[in-house]
Amino acid sequence: MSQKKRQKPVVWVEQILLKMLPHQDEEEPASYRGSSGSCPGTVRKMPYLGSEDVVKELKKALCNPHIQADRLRYRNVIQRVIRYMTQGLDMSGVFMEMVKASATVDIVQKKLVYLYMCTYAPLKPDLALLAINTLCKDCSDPNPMVRGLALRSMCSLRMPGVQEYIQQPILNGLRDKASYVRRVAVLGCAKMHNLHGDSEVDGALVNELYSLLRDQDPIVVVNCLRSLEEILKQEGGIVINKPIAHHLLNRMSKLDQWGQAEVLNFLLRYQPRSEEELFDILNLLDSFLKSGSPGVVMGATKLFLILAKKFPHVQTDVLVRVKGPLLAACSSESRELCFVALCHVRQILHSLPGHFSSHYKKFFCSYSEPHYIKLQKVEVLCELVNDENVQQVLEELRGYCTDVSADFAQAAIFAIGSIARTYTDQCVQILTELLGLRQEHITTVVVQTFRDLVWLCPQCTEAVCQALPGCEENIQDSEGKQALIWLLGVHGERIPNAPYVLEDFVENVKSETFPAVKMELLTALLRLFLSRPAECQDMLGRLLYYCIEEEKDMAVRDRGLFYYRLLLVGIDEVKRILCSPKSDPTLGLLEDPAERPVNSWASDFNTLVPVYGKSRWATISKCHGAERCGPELPKTSSFAASGPLIPEENKERVQEVPDSGALMLVPNLQLTADYFEKTWLSLKVAHQQVLPWQGEFHPDTLQMALQVVNIQTIAMSRAGARPWKAYLSAQDDTGCLFLTELLWKPENSEMQISVKQNETRTETLKSFISVLETVIGTIEEIKS
């Protein structure tokens, strides 16, 4: 179980904007070898400056008749063009030559050329018409692979006026004899609809797609479902009626696992008309609960739970049957699959406590497992404890408490504390033994656990008070100090050295950096003064004097003044206010909620809600919705109008940002990495400031927010990098360019912002900084 801490996985697409090395068996061009200079702090070197020599060399090679006569040499030159294109070089200069290279019978060469065309067609719309003519011709080729490839490439062109060229090839493709062409044509319908934007839905096309749901090729059927869902998105998506539902159910066995999972998701929209039809459908789905694909099993399970919402015994029976596949997924070599399965196990345990108790050993942690999986398994173990396995589970958790990862060790201690609410004596004994190790991170968490235990389980107060003396020497962090001070204040009459331990805190109060510790010390010392006045009177006076006369934190000063004035009123009044109950076992009911019905979470099953939690997933979904709406914004949009990313509670604050509405940032700014690098090195910093940032950092959320306000990410460090850097660019409607560097230093809990400007405009710069501050501040609130 000795394993370094690993980061929890996150849904993350790395920016492919950083420099890549050339192929090993190919000599680098002179301009490639002689390039230098990069943005400071990026993980890898950014694309080199100047690619004119490379483009000239490749253009010459593509025009060379000797190379054209040799098929392999010609293909290798085209591969070099594609490789440099993916590395960030502007290869649009060879567009005409690449279009000519598409006139070949070589399928591989055609694929490479079509990839190039789709990439640069928006930048060369006039020349792209030549490419369209070539593609239209290939759509009539006798080879179905060529027809399908040409049709797919035509549908991938993102340029104005392309719709009129692709409509007829798509309609022809829908009736093509080759299934591969029909697959491509069906997906092309959705792409064509997206190119039309908000235009009306073509009813004839929708009917054609509905008829293709009965196509002999199963992949065509699944593609039809996806296309209809996209085309009819504004109308609520595809309608699943009884004939379609029964047809899909009968075709399920012929689909691959991806198609089955997709169809199961669409079948959630159909509600059977009678109980007889319901059980007929469940009988058809029964075999998919035994599928070898976890996705199919989870999809079938969710469909069972939704359809059988009026039959709790059927739901319970289904959850029992999927126990085996879930346990297998929890032991999978795929860490992502294992983590998601564990999250769903925890969800099931909310309704069926002890459902996996007989298999508790399956949730023991292995030393090679990443940190986030270990934490989930510990949480599951806490919910599986019963009279039969409590000793084995506690021994396993006890071993985790000395893990080399401090976070995992502390999580195991908290787990023991959670179990202690039911099995108090065994857990308190283990926690007391852990105090003997005198490790700071262990002692801190044990004391916090003791604080919660004496409140919820007053019967263990005596044992806790006997274990506390001496542990103050190994506590340094704020949470541990507050827990210890609270225990000494509330139960100090049972701890012989309680006043002397508090006296040490009073002596060092000037060097204490956490106001919460000082306020806890004030309350604890005043409580202890009521039971042991002779030992506490002098130090209480010194502490009150310091807090009132010297303390700079207003909260601590106000607390000190309040207690001073309360003492002036009289001891009886102090006792009436401060001597509250020392424990409340009834709060244990709040910690252990009643079993939740399956229907309360059935709709969230097989989604990301069990992974993120309901509230956080709602925020993420809102951000994704804003991202999808991004391309539909007008050509210039103000920050004030780009609000879908911002939660409702933060909209007022965003709208109150001074002058941010006057800044018009241009969407879809095309700025290459090498141009950014060259410009960045030539400009001076126009503005620099530091913003606070507490806790973990999620680059994908920040990047998503920046996209919504039309700020482009040029380069970004990997998630988890220390320190973390990002380079951003934006341009307003007057042509003023903003280049930004974000530098996050976790040790300082701050985000440093450096902005460079190609034109000196003070007011515009202030507006841009205001936009950037608001985005970062909003993401900080979402995170917390």
From TrEMBL:
SUPFAM superfamilies: ARM repeat (SSF48371). One of its GO terms (cellular component) is trans-Golgi network. Keywords: Golgi apparatus, Membrane, Protein transport, Transport. It comes from the Eukaryota. One of its GO terms (molecular function) is clathrin binding. Coiled coil: none annotated. One of its GO terms (biological process) is vesicle-mediated transport. Its main location: Golgi. Gene3D superfamilies: Leucine-rich Repeat Variant, TATA-Binding Protein. Pfam families: Adaptin_N, B2-adapt-app_C. It is found in: Golgi apparatus, trans-Golgi network membrane. It is a peripheral membrane protein. SMART domains: B2-adapt-app_C (SM01020). Adaptor protein complex 4 (AP-4) is a heterotetramer composed of two large adaptins (epsilon-type subunit AP4E1 and beta-type subunit AP4B1), a medium adaptin (mu-type subunit AP4M1) and a small adaptin (sigma-type AP4S1). Interacts with TEPSIN; this interaction requires the presence of a functional AP-4 complex. Interacts with GRIA2; probably indirect it mediates the somatodendritic localization of GRIA2 in neurons. Component of the adaptor protein complex 4 (AP-4). Adaptor protein complexes are vesicle coat components involved both in vesicle formation and cargo selection. They control the vesicular transport of proteins in different trafficking pathways. AP-4 forms a non clathrin-associated coat on vesicles departing the trans-Golgi network (TGN) and may be involved in the targeting of proteins from the trans-Golgi network (TGN) to the endosomal-lysosomal system. Belongs to the adaptor complexes large subunit family. This is AP complex subunit beta. It comes from Sapajus apella (Brown-capped capuchin).
